[in-house]
Amino acid sequence: MKLLLVNPNFKGVVSVPSLGLGFIGTYVRENSNCEVEIVEPILQGLTEAQVLDKVKESDIVGLTCYTESRFQVFDFAAKAKQVNPDCKLIVGGPHVNTLGKQILQHYPFIDVVVRGEGEETTLDIIKGKAFEEVLGITWRKNSGDIVRNPDRPMIRNIDSLHYDYSLILPQVEGWKDLEISPELQKLNALPIIASRGCPFRCAFCAAHEQWGKIYRGLSPEELVKRLKELVNQYNIGYFRFYDALFTGNDKKILRFCDLLEKSKLNIRFRIDVRVGTSREVLKRLREVGCDIVGFGVETGSDKILKRINKGINRKQIEETIKICKELDYWIIGFFMISLPDETMEDIKRTLELLKFFDGINLQFFKIHPNTSFYNELKQRGEIDDEVWLDPNYGVNTIYGNELYYCKNIFPSASFYRDEVEALLRRAYCNYTIHNPQKAIQRFGLVKGALMLSMSATLYGLLKTKMGRKLYSKFQNTILPKMLYGWLSKKNRKVNT
Known about the structure:
By secondary structure, the chain is of the alpha/beta class.
């Protein structure tokens, strides 16, 4: 029997493999005789036709579905069933948790939707367990009826889950974290995950729903053991932790630091922390090889921080920045513009903070399913579930797969799409020209100087009404596309 796991994304930017597929593939291979292959088309340079050839040879095909790539997934699923009608076609991933029934109604060629964690569920299917007895799936009977089985409990002890990087070597060979300094980019690197879930309840995020509203991390002993193994096997010098929150438990983090220090592993690493993380924890992490921390600021306005249920305030943001600077961290900030009830004054409060960061990720706020904000908009009648399912539904025909929170779509939004995009361009250019040393640090002397020159030219153009009109007329030509694409690509957070 062969299991083919695919991230069916054939266009756009994919910088990191879908790590969740690696955990599922490893679990199935460790607990069965099933052959497993994981495919990441963009990273491997594979065409759709080449991946469909692999589908022909597979008994079970599992597709991971992200909100932004959902229609690519559904389109590929239809083609997969055409070339191999006998395969069991499974769809899982962050987009489908609450939409299983609707997806099966819209797309009759999909056999099963997996909700929540996929390791145990996929293994049950591989071993031929009757669908009636498999927890955590929504499935279609031969009669056509759709059944939603009870949820599967989350795996409490994730020390039992492993990640065999040999399954994704074509995707990670030569992998680099593009948001860090050229010095660190010279080291052999791997993306890694050490925890699941997030204990917080931000209104724009569905992580706490996807992961069963609990936070689980590897034990410090197990994490250090795995880092040792990866260093020895692949000669790794740098790890990028893609946890939603690495510092979920201070006691465990300090224990991890002690064990890492005793191991004498010579590694550098990057993590994401929460605003308000203690000086003690940040200092200890810095001492054992943590060079980069990222944290989600989202907004600099106390009013909007409260509106999005972030659980932090402006003073805490400033204090965390101060601590990180004193400890000589390279810090990366994540921000959003056009949040609900946001005004231009709120945005100015956000933009004030950019200068303190060595790298920024400033994004247009987008709506995702199974979030508090989506449910709020749905209750007000501004949107409904069809937007996630039908490519011909209203705004999907105009704006594509990403649901930007703008006045063009949502009456409750404060800004139109072109206003937000202009703000983003000006902010990136302004950040670059006012932080020349950071541009040189990140891109090197030649590229950094070119970046500064181009940013200054574009920023000057966008400051005047005539310049904005001129830019609007020529924005699809190569120079603006190259600059904005370069700036935003280097600062874009990738969804895992």
